[in-house]
Amino acid sequence: MDINNFSRYSSGDLESLIEISPNAEFELCRHDGIKYIKGHNVLRRPDDFAEFLSKFPAEDRNISLQRNEKTEIDSSAPGFQQYLKENYFAKLNQKLFKVGYQMKLHRYPIQRVKFDNFTNCCYPGMLAFQKNYLPHTDRFGIAANLYLTDPGTKTSTSFYRIRCSSGNVYHNEFELSKAPKEDALELKARYIDEGANASWEPWVFFRGNDFYDFYYEIPAEYNSVSMYRGNVWHSICYDASPESKVRYSFVTAMFAE
Ligand SMILES: [Fe+2]
Description:
- By secondary structure, the chain is an alpha+beta fold.
- Helix content is 22%, strand content 31%.
- The chain has helices spanning 11-17, 46-54, 61-66, 90-102, 173-177, 181-196, and strands spanning 25-31, 34-40, 80-84, 113-122, 127-129, 142-147, 155-163, 169-170, 200-202, 212-219, 225-229, 234-238, 247-256.
- It has a 7-stranded antiparallel beta sheet with strand order 1-2-11-6-13-4-3, covered by helices on one side. Strands 7, 8, 10 and 12 form a 4-stranded antiparallel beta sheet that branches. Strands 5-9 form a two-stranded antiparallel ribbon.
- Strand 1 and strand 2 (34-40) form a beta hairpin.
- It is globular.
- Fe (ii) ion is lined by residues 136, 138, 143, 234.
């Protein structure tokens, strides 16, 4: 073991990677069933941050499953994710938390909030597994996605409402929790069961169908952040053809204990 093989940083080095740009701007937006925050020109050094993050090891669940290996990853996100330790990114997490609080996206008390950090990496040629291009909701309260690359092709976070055959429409889990039982069962049949029976297929640029009604998207622009509640149905729009480049984002997940 050679000590020089380790990647070591000072706290100042780490803070400089996540330094907010003096030109950063945040706005609260509302559209139909969603309220979200969009930030522009967020980091001062997004490329350095992307380069730093790319060094974290990752299990690519697609590779594990293709080799018939057991995986402990229970996220159904496409591409691969890197699981990071949140204390390296405390200043950025707190900044995003504060922006969310001041703009009234959430009312989490700072003493009770917990952060989780990971990345999402989508890449040309990646496959879909169990229809993971279909909309989902997240387990955590708020997601802030910071986009660190420009794939060069259209990409966004897209939002959907569920249109049940009863005629009822749902934007989020809260609305669904008050729904008649038939609607909840229909969702289960359409999402969980349909996905579980499906296996590998080329990644689909999903824009909705008879059940998932696409109504909005936030473009995943380079060095922008989009922050929204995890309980709304959403998905990733990404073109996985060879014309695209990597879509790499850093995620701050927030929840109150
Ligand atoms: Fe999500």
